[in-house]
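ASSEMBLY PREDICTION REQUEST
Request ID: AP-0331
Submitted by: J.K., bench scientist
Number of chains: two
Total residues: 1008
Priority: normal
Notes: Please return the full assembly, not individual chains.
Input sequences:
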Amino acid sequence: MAKKKKSRKVVKKKVKQKLMALPFAELMAKGDSFVDSGKPRDAIELYKMAIKNSKSTEQSKSVHRNLFMAYLARAKELSDKDMLVEAKALENQALTYLPSPELMDQSSMIAFIGMTNTRETLEYVVKYVKHKGADPIVSAMIADELIRENGWYLLKKRHEPLLFSRDAPIIKKCVPLMDKGKWQQAADLMKELPRTSPFAHIRMFCRAMASFVTGDDKNMLKAISFIPSESVFKKITNTLETSIQCVEEKKMIQGDKTVVACLWEGATTIWETAEQIISRAEKKQFDNKMKQLITTFSTHILPNDPAYAKQYILETLWQQNISDPRKISAFERGLLPKKNKSLQAKRDFVFPINPLPNAMEYLNFLKKAGVDAHYLALTESAIVLYLCNHIQAGGNHNHLDGASDKVAKRFGFSPNELFHLRFMQFVSHGIQCDPGNRLLYELLIELDCTSRDSKNLKEKLLLSMCDVYPDDPFPCIELASLYHGKNAFRKAENILKKAMELAPYDSRVQDQHLISLIISADKGVNKNNFHLVWKDLKKAQKIDTGNNGLLLKEKELFYKICEKPEIPKKTIAMHLDGLSGFDRLKIVSILRMDVEDKPKQHRTKILSKIKSLFKNEIENISTLSSEEILRLLVPFPREWQYVFKNLHVHELFFKTMDQILEYLDDNDLIKLVDLVLAPDNFLFFQEEFEMRGLEDDPENNLVLFYSFVLDGLAGGDWDVEAFKEVLEDADAETRKKIQDAGNKFSKHTHGPYKHALQTLDFGILEKMFMGSLFDDDFDDDYDDDYDDDDDYFDDDDDFNPLSMFGGGDGMPDINDLDNPLTKSMFLEMSKYLKAEDPRQFKKMFEELREALELFIDEQGLRGANKARLQSLKASIKEDRELGGSVAMLNLLFLKEAKKQLSWEGKTLFLD
Amino acid sequence: MLKSYLVLDLPLDATDQEIRKKYLQLVKAYSPEKNPDAFKEITTAYESIKDKRTRAATELFSALKNMEPSETLKTLAASVKIKRRNPGLQELFKAIN
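STATUS: Completed
Returned structure:
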């Protein structure tokens, strides 16, 4: 190392010697080039060599200016690096090379002014002007210094060529006005100054300030443009210019912060505060500093109600931090101690974790807070709408299924009814809270009614909608459709008449009228009354808006076949001549669906003919485009629900043709899955996606995602690694599509699978099935945990009975058992264990039972009366460790516990 | 909801009429042709607080609507009113020293 250093020194010395040998002119040229390339330190060295090599004093003096400038450049470099002391030292050194004034130019003068005191500068400038003539920039800078340092007394007779003495009296009068902010008066006084005055730019500054204060930005900018960039006032006006623009554009204020604080009043640093909050939120730094920042920010944006602003900001941060509710809850507790509980309740129904009880709690908080009754009702209705959408979108039936009696009563549904009726009752409750909530009515209309009760409830609500929206034909149309479903044709006709009166040219009304006529014609077929059938059909054809053209064509053919069942297949096929491939297949598929449940007479004969016709037609499917095939497979419109028993025409195609999905491109296939996926076709779709994902297009991450999910849904493995890979490989756009798909798929599953699909966090499945749950050394771990300790509940470590399920990293805390996801996760694991390893399952229960019975014995509770045992029940549940065991007993081993626990155990521990 | 009130420069207890009046004033000042972004912001703000029903829903689900906290906080910051001061010359000189 030392050797290397030494050799470097030798090289350096040699280079120096070589340079020293260069002539003066060459050294100067090299020095200049170093200055130009931003290397003042090297330039200084070369200039110094040039002085040594200079042949005369004159030559030596000529280097001084260059050396002076090089020192200043280096001083600036250091001061930019915040090495202010070193920079000052270099400035002082520069002054030792200060050339005589005649050698200075404007740029050197500008650099020089300000380095020394005004007195010295003034003398130097006088000499400079003598040689070079008047220099307005240099004069302006001297004028600045005179004002800044109040240096009027320095002005002597010999300074007259600089014109300071001439104009100084006016400026002296103006300074007190400027100090008081009387900018306009000062500017007016300075009107006498000629344009050539060294103080002229100060008048412009006064005008700029006066315009700024009065908000006349246009004139302000004009005045600023006359101030030379070298003037000290420019430092102020630069900030003035940028800050005006930022304030105008509502952006973070740029410019010198101290000057900004002088020019503007109010929260000039609000943007910085906002940025700090954002940055801390991104880093999840919910600490005291963050509290302070939010408090400051809230006070600035809403001084009258900072608490409200704080709440709003907290809610804004929820979305990003929802994965860590405890942390955010603790933070909220510190920031808004009084509102913490209501915020938590709100968060837990907005980002639904147990949404109904939390919504109920939140509404109670609002009521207690004195929110007016009408607003409260509107809020409740909005909550119902939100939760209905959530339940429907994710198939989250458990929110209603698992509701307690208290919650069910609060939200107006009967806990013992079937889901669809309960759901409708929930919707009805929302409508009762706010009869003007149109979105809830629209949701209601989409609901299928299968039971009489649900039909009656829907009728009641639709009638109420007719009252709320008396000019709208929409509820009338829906009511007509509902009456058709109830076989109440007269009522349907009457309400349709009302709809036609309200909106005779509304296509929805005409379409519903057409459907009504078709239903009537279908009834005529069953009654063998073809006279009426043709009459209805003719009427229907007359009012067709074009939306039901193919249905009408099919019906015409269908009625002909029903009227003359002996009509040969060939003749039926002839009716389709001239139609496009798509229309033919569509009509035949509708026909095929029609003959499933109609007609009552000659059904078998007709059915066999149509089946054969459908088979023939489907053979031509390859001639259709992917988009046309998709249109064939999508379910019939909802408006046809009382014309056909089943709207799912795809089932017919799937049954008839195994390879039909091959004709769809990836996009259409995905669209179809989104529309018709159901448990009975999981496997059908899965096979197609598997083939496409793994063989045809292994790069298509969306297709691979569908393939892996369908594999899991169809009973195969949930391949966690494969999911992770797909997500890693997907670009942002595909990831968004995967997220949407995950949400849609989540409807078809439950518990941790649903959660994984909704959040795309498949790690949770890994924890369940790939962790230590089924490790071979389970017995050993278990024995170590429970046998070595004499006292099961006296373990010093935090006891987590759920660790019996493996207890690996990432296992939820026992307190999380209230969380439906954790609960369902353990239920799933327990079910799996019970099926896969019943011996182990039994052993786990036995260990738990023994521990709990031991507790009864040790506490002297054996033989205690029921009242005493029940009085202890609540405190046992609250006990951190024992409560967890009891919760697990009730959750996972209830059936076993009911049979095998002692009487005391059942009384004490079971719910 | 707060964001909407601040965008429209209205107090939190503004009535439906006041909200509508302010909205009309602002859309007049920020026409969609000249200020499309401002117009969109004003209209969105108005749509979310125009009547009691929408206010109830907006109040409930602001956490879902404000998907980008940084955007929301910036909008809130933009609503803060900053006034021009009239400093004296010495104050300004002190600031640049």
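REVIEWER COMMENTS: Residues 281 and 317 of chain A are 7 Å apart (CA to CA).
SIGN-OFF: pending second reviewer
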